[in-house]
TrEMBL record, chains A, B:
Transmembrane segments: none annotated. GO terms for molecular function: ligase activity. Residues 257-352 form the CoA-binding domain. InterPro entries: ATP_grasp_subdomain_1 (IPR013815), CoA-bd (IPR003781), Ligase_CoA_dom (IPR043938), NAD(P)-bd_dom_sf (IPR036291), Succ_CoA_lig_flav_dom (IPR032875), Succinyl-CoA_synth-like (IPR016102). Pfam families: ATP-grasp_5, CoA_binding_2, Ligase_CoA_2, Succ_CoA_lig. It comes from the Bacteria. Keywords: Ligase. It comes from Actinacidiphila acididurans. This is Acetate--CoA ligase family protein. Gene3D superfamilies: ATP-grasp fold, A domain (3.30.1490.20), ATP-grasp fold, B domain (3.30.470.20), NAD(P)-binding Rossmann-like Domain (3.40.50.720), Succinyl-CoA synthetase domains (3.40.50.261).
Amino acid sequence: MEPDRAAVAAVLDQVRAGGRTALTAPEGKRIADAYGIATPAEGLAADVDEAVALADRIGGEVVLKVVSPDILHKSEAGGVVTGLRTAAQVRAAFHRICENARAYAPQARIEGIQVQQMLPPGQEVIVGAVTDPTFGKVVAFGLGGVLVEVIRDVTFRLAPVTADEALAMLDSVKAAEVLRGVRGAPPVDRWALAEQLRRVSRLVSDFPEIAEVDLNPVIATPEGAVAADIRVILDDHQPPPRPRFTREEILASMDRLMKPRSVAVIGASNEDGKIGNSVMKNLVNGGFAGDILPVNPKADDILGRKAYRSVLDVPGEVDVAVFAIPARLVARALREVGRKGIPNAVLIPSGFAETGEQALQDEVTAIAREYGIRLLGPNIYGYYSTWQDLCATFCTPYDVKGGVALTSQSGGIGMAILGFARTTGTGVSAIVGLGNKSDLDEDDLLTYFGEDPHTECVAMHLEDLKDGRAFVAAARATVPKKPVVVLKAGRTSAGARAAGSHTGALAGDDKVYDDILRQAGVIRAPGLRDMLEYARALPVLPTPKGDNVVIITGAGGSGVLLSDACADNGLDLMEIPPDLDAAFRAFIPPFGAAGNPIDITGGEPPATYEATIRLGLEDPRIHALVLGYWHTIVTPPMVFAEVTARVVAQARAKGIEKPVVASLAGDTEVEAAAAYLFDHGVVAYPYTTEAPVAALGAKYRWARAAGLLPTPSAH
Amino acid sequence: MEPDRAAVAAVLDQVRAGGRTALTAPEGKRIADAYGIATPAEGLAADVDEAVALADRIGGEVVLKVVSPDILHKSEAGGVVTGLRTAAQVRAAFHRICENARAYAPQARIEGIQVQQMLPPGQEVIVGAVTDPTFGKVVAFGLGGVLVEVIRDVTFRLAPVTADEALAMLDSVKAAEVLRGVRGAPPVDRWALAEQLRRVSRLVSDFPEIAEVDLNPVIATPEGAVAADIRVILDDHQPPPRPRFTREEILASMDRLMKPRSVAVIGASNEDGKIGNSVMKNLVNGGFAGDILPVNPKADDILGRKAYRSVLDVPGEVDVAVFAIPARLVARALREVGRKGIPNAVLIPSGFAETGEQALQDEVTAIAREYGIRLLGPNIYGYYSTWQDLCATFCTPYDVKGGVALTSQSGGIGMAILGFARTTGTGVSAIVGLGNKSDLDEDDLLTYFGEDPHTECVAMHLEDLKDGRAFVAAARATVPKKPVVVLKAGRTSAGARAAGSHTGALAGDDKVYDDILRQAGVIRAPGLRDMLEYARALPVLPTPKGDNVVIITGAGGSGVLLSDACADNGLDLMEIPPDLDAAFRAFIPPFGAAGNPIDITGGEPPATYEATIRLGLEDPRIHALVLGYWHTIVTPPMVFAEVTARVVAQARAKGIEKPVVASLAGDTEVEAAAAYLFDHGVVAYPYTTEAPVAALGAKYRWARAAGLLPTPSAH
């Protein structure tokens, strides 16, 4: 059925006219009916014959309830009789209720007797919708009773949901099995339940003024799903719409920001220790090939380059103006940037919203809007665009070009990104500080990096999202092409409190973030180090083409721990078919362990590693390899690394691209061996069995989200 | 009441006499009665008057059931009537059942009618006991229905449990809140429930032949806890008792192993690449000050030392014989070691149980027992006793003396321990390989390291425990003195399968391990790298004296992530009292964030870090500090490190010992700064907010387990 929007609008008007925000039960029922949300069948009977006719039409057991504006406590008045099956029972109950009501309140106006379907016993579930400060309308599903209240077993999605998304929600709670029938109970009607979710999600999407809907409980049975109770809350205060840019507008301005031909530095300085000096030095020393244009009202030249009194004096087009002046001077200079027609301003200075100067930030944002300038910052370290040799920051240059774009809301985390990248030699396409996000934010960057051919993976640290829906849209457009890793800080209530005091941003409930980021196909990093490791590893790993993971290990002990890690990361250890088992056995000692892990045993020469790894790469049934190396005199670390790199390169030359990760157990020589392997396309770590498998797990999670792998049944 | 053991013994004899292993319901009931395990009141009525009298005695609602060996399906026969309250109802039901039974099966012998108490509605829980292959009798508790079957919300303890342990079990399930009353339900009688657990645990402890007990469900109400059904399974096959040594015997032989005056090397060799050559070199180059005695039937001297044809030719006492000969030669040489009266044999060779040669290993073990030799291994890299400059391995010497003793079941993991320790400069008291554990195992080592004054922390990698109870006893004796960290490999079913194929050891269910290791006060490391980091950090950190953790950070972004990590690790962020807040505020900019984290803001000079850290150390209400450093020009990494180390040292000089951990965000210079801090008693890591807080969390978990802190209410 098509929803009856007019009927809902009429109810909402009536509620507003009454100055209320909460709907009555009959109003809720009318809304449910208008959207085809199943509730118990019911009707109002004026006399006993009408009651009998209604009960007959409803079928099954019914309950009779007195309807009177003068009787609030129906049960206390003897005004409710349940479990009525026959016409005679309905007749008797009708008369009894009328008598009881008269006895209880002789003056009461009795408007009639409500005849309502009695719901059969079934699985109680909760279907609801709320308005999240970050994501707007979200629909919620949980199993009723203890599971949702004590275990908090609930899942969220952006509203509206499709029928498929609604069905997937049923499988997203921990106790999902319950709906399929446990302890001899029959499975519930999943379609009917999904339909309740879909309709509720459409209702709140069609009527933004509906802040909350609660169907609690919904009784799910093999025959259907009926909401025993519906609660609707209105809130007419809608957040003001955020300025939105089209995808083309975002790409056009971001392209000039990330690939500028000319950069002006407002507040460029010759004085050591000044930010305007560091930015100039980094632009120059970083090797930027475009024009570097220092602006300083008091200097003739900066670092040997002609300086301009004002950006208005600069000849020709300028793509980016980097601000390195105190906060209080920004507004004035930004107007000049606007008049000059510069499309991007990078606001390094702090002293805005983060120090309580919200008004100053608002003023600057308004100027930017007036002139059509996009703002990065304020309160940031700047940004790197590595393939342009562009280092517009007050940190130090970074020149290892590669495939990962990293962004951070916090400056401290940006510095950690830089240090980690440098020490590991991580190949980077960009590092961008977002700071107060007065304008440009994660969705703009994601939109750009999604299209940027240099970028193979995007990793973002964030504490909040200004516009969760725009981010989800950007993520959905990007994920089919490349992995998006998110470190969402402020996960826990303690953390969220800290986020509040840091940025003044309202941090959402982490469960909502978690479900919706996953729905958008984002890989969530559990911590800072994980984000950094994923960022380093994901561009190195080829995309797996199937679920079959095989562990080949020289150390049985590593094999056990690598198996643990595979299970932790939802990876499937392949059941090795007999012919493949025999093929592996041909290379390993008779006491080596069969199956998976394949334990080639310690003390084997390089040839054993080589033969088994080659077999693992060349057999098309295997999709990914996890290697466990054990340092021995027979196969020293660097020998293992060279052999492995060579076999992998040979396979790639034949067109065989499979992800290979390695855990190296041994003395300190394994560190150089791991670095060598990483440089040769094998994600390898010393002294850990967890990190290599976590990287592989992240790649698999992305491949699944991107639709490149079949969805597994059990994870 | 005291349990009636004779009554149980009589039932078990009867079951055995019948050749059965499962008890009937009446037999289960008799056992329950003998141990005071509450079950529904019941009795057998021969006639209607007896039934009425029984119902009257039981009180409340009763159910009547026909008892006939010829009627298996009582309900089908109309032989069950429920919900009887009055004498008249009981009478009517009695007659109805008799009529129905006669109609259903005219020839049936009717032995009487069972009159049974009907249990009131309540919370269904499960109380049980099983025989775990590692830990023996364990008692289990879970919430009934979906929670235990779908969510697997269950907890285990070693049987028998005390009343306090039983009460603690009720709080150890995820949905523990349910028992305290949720959704308007009243709380259940916790004491009655705990008493069921205690009695079941005592029953299986008293009668080892009871393999399994299931009370499922137990109906828990505010008035009590009654088992609706009891199931008992026997297994008369008891595992053979393991040879046990007294604590004094273990300490005496371990003392000679770890602090030997003389070490013989069986199979010492002059030939490069031979294990007997590596071991000799490592003993010599490691600087061992005792006698090094090479044994080789074909050499006169090894590495310039006089060699002996047989260990029997060595003059004087020998404490340890290290074996570096092929497996097939071990038995013969071991007899000579026995005849020489050497108390310890270190069996490096592989080729025993791990390659299927179980018989060879059994032979060697039997010889050791015959001569009273304790065996380490076989199939190990050897062992290090750092404070003795003893390196009896085929690896390379390690000489950084310190507080952590590390052991590993696997050789590969042992090599990872060595490499990690060397690269981080971890101070080590011992590294010991356990391999096949034919004799010495984790409990022997734990007993020794618990007493060893050099050892401040014990970290163990293990795949199985030969004797879980001996390990728990050793852990309980050690934990009050020093932390015990365990990496239990084979956590998951996939991992356990790999363990099975690696060692042939039967790996237990991980949930049992997890609960019982926690019960023993052990800190479980989630992965290899975590074990290594805990091992490095725990001896460095002083023990906290209370729960109040304070974060001081220069980077707001780090503060949020550090807060997340505190919540993840069950650490309490202190609510800062107003006077302390004011004291901190005096040192930080006006826009710095109050509360906890204390955000001193970026760009502050060393003096701000110094003043706030000093205040954090000196205020007695604060018990631990988590520092977030942000690399700036104003406070470079090494300056921060030196300032922090100095303030911490000054506090220690005044007797203030508090754990301090730090996360360093910055360019690569933070690596040296972190290493410097670690050397000066501050557990510091670059590029991660998780690792420092995880180390502090591990120290807190130990302090709680050791009874040095109040047990928190919420974690």
